Amino acid sequence: MSKKLNIGLFGFGVVGQGLYDIIKTKNLNLEIVKIAIKNPEKDRSLPKELFTTDRDEILNNPDINTVVELINDTEAAFEIVSRALSSGKNVVSASKKMIATYLNELIELQEKYGTSLLYEGAVCGSIPIIRNLEEYYDNELLHSISGIFNGSSNYILSKGYLENLDYNTALKQAQDLGFAETDPTMDVGGYDAKYKLIIAAAHAYGVVIDPEEVLNIGIQNLAPNDLQYAREKKLKIKLVPVAKELDDKHVTLFVLPKFVNETEFLYNVEYEYNGVTVQAAFADQQFFFGKGAGGHPTGSAVLSDIAALRYDYQYEYKKAKAVNNLQFTNNVAINIYLRYEDEALVEALEFEYIQERFYSGNYKFVIGKINLQKLIYNQQRIAENKAFVAFADQLTGVSLASAKLQAAEV
Ligand SMILES: NC(=O)C1=CN([C@@H]2O[C@H](COP(=O)(O)OP(=O)(O)OC[C@H]3O[C@@H](n4cnc5c(N)ncnc54)[C@H](OP(=O)(O)O)[C@@H]3O)[C@@H](O)[C@H]2O)C=CC1
Ligand SMILES: N[C@@H](CC=O)C(=O)O
């Protein structure tokens, strides 16, 4: 017999409402006792008595054994989740920025208080990737995990490539559909994808990495010339986070736009859909596909976590706890496409090797090999120059699975 869950829900926005819609169609052994929100003046679809703006009504209620945290405020979310875990309540959260930023602390709290924090909905919406990394690939060596981890930016890219819709209109649609973060820079700047990648890497490789250390370049500077170039080469541009084991000592992570060709699974992942490609030593290549954003797809992942808590499921962080010599590094050589205006930027990036250069009127690009650290040092300059950078393994004739990202001297 499963344990009855008395739930205190934080947040009744896109995901909170989505979760509620799903729960009311089921006859599960659970009850939503109280819902904490921020703004008491907003119209709600449920009776007023169910809502509160006082978080203590949930956190200090001994009858509530489960907290579901679905709010859009990172610091408040961390406070709520920490207090819940410390007072014996199990938690489900979808707040990827909060989880990626405070993962070490959250793991410690779970260990100290014997409570469980689950967060499938935080990474790629409806795709069950965390539990697969945690359980299914427990004993597999994973060469790489990559994919499309952000629905809003993929929506904008699909609208542009397939329907010629301009960037701002597509972004507005992604916001209206409830896909985008409160600050959409998180989506289009590659931050959201980075937080998800960091969470996935903790389960895949056992490394907990500070988000500040990981490069994220997004799609804000994408220009018609870049799209035209991709079309001519029969490629698409997608925003792709990559975690790759370089050798038995080093793992690298980065988020960059990427040229993908039609043989890659990601080529056909459009709009708010996400895709995760796992390259494993023995299972070889596997692909997970599903909706990455939106109330119901994310709500379904949150509900799956809630259901797992009825049986006291916990992540064991087996790879993080195993003797693991893997270290994170940015000291790696990658092939990029750089569309730029200012020659000084090309100088500053100190390409190790230039394979192709192109100049025609205002359109100038180089394709070549560069150390990832040079991109990190020059990230601000790239943004100010409105230059566009993309991971260009396909332009240099190799796929990610076989790409030789070389760890330089570390
Ligand atoms: N939208 C999506 O597709 C996905 C979102 N997520 C994540 O899920 C979380 C929620 O996202 P989403 O539902 O889209 O956000 P929304 O902006 O739609 O809703 C946020 C909710 O949080 C409430 N809230 C904000 N601050 C507090 C607080 N301090 N205490 C109590 N309630 C608070 C708001 O209250 P009020 O209603 O009064 O304004 C609102 O109900 C975010 O972390 C997001 O990154 C994860 C996966 C997918
Ligand atoms: N803003 C996010 C929402 C889901 O995580 C996205 O667009 O993917």
From TrEMBL:
GO molecular function, one term: NADP binding
InterPro entries: Asp/hSer_DH_NAD-bd, HDH_cat, HDH_CS, NAD(P)-bd_dom_sf
Chain ranges of the Homoserine dehydrogenase catalytic domain: 128-306
Swiss-Prot/TrEMBL GO biological process terms: methionine biosynthetic process; threonine biosynthetic process
Ranges for domain Aspartate/homoserine dehydrogenase NAD-binding: 11-120
Protein's UniProt keywords contain NADP: yes
SUPFAM superfamilies, sorted: Glyceraldehyde-3-phosphate dehydrogenase-like, C-terminal domain, NAD(P)-binding Rossmann-fold domains
Enzyme Commission code(s) on record: 1.1.1.3
Functional pathway: Amino-acid biosynthesis; L-methionine biosynthesis via de novo pathway; L-homoserine from L-aspartate: step 3/3; Amino-acid biosynthesis; L-threonine biosynthesis; L-threonine from L-aspartate: step 3/5
Record keywords, A-Z: Amino-acid biosynthesis, Methionine biosynthesis, NADP, Oxidoreductase, Threonine biosynthesis
Reactions accelerated catalytically: L-homoserine + NADP(+) = L-aspartate 4-semialdehyde + NADPH + H(+)
Top-level enzyme category: oxidoreductase
Gene3D superfamilies named in the record: Dihydrodipicolinate Reductase, domain 2, NAD(P)-binding Rossmann-like Domain
PANTHER family associated with the record: HOMOSERINE DEHYDROGENASE
Family recorded in the similarity comment: Belongs to the homoserine dehydrogenase family.
NCBIfam families according to UniProt: PRK06349.1
Protein name per Swiss-Prot or TrEMBL: Homoserine dehydrogenase
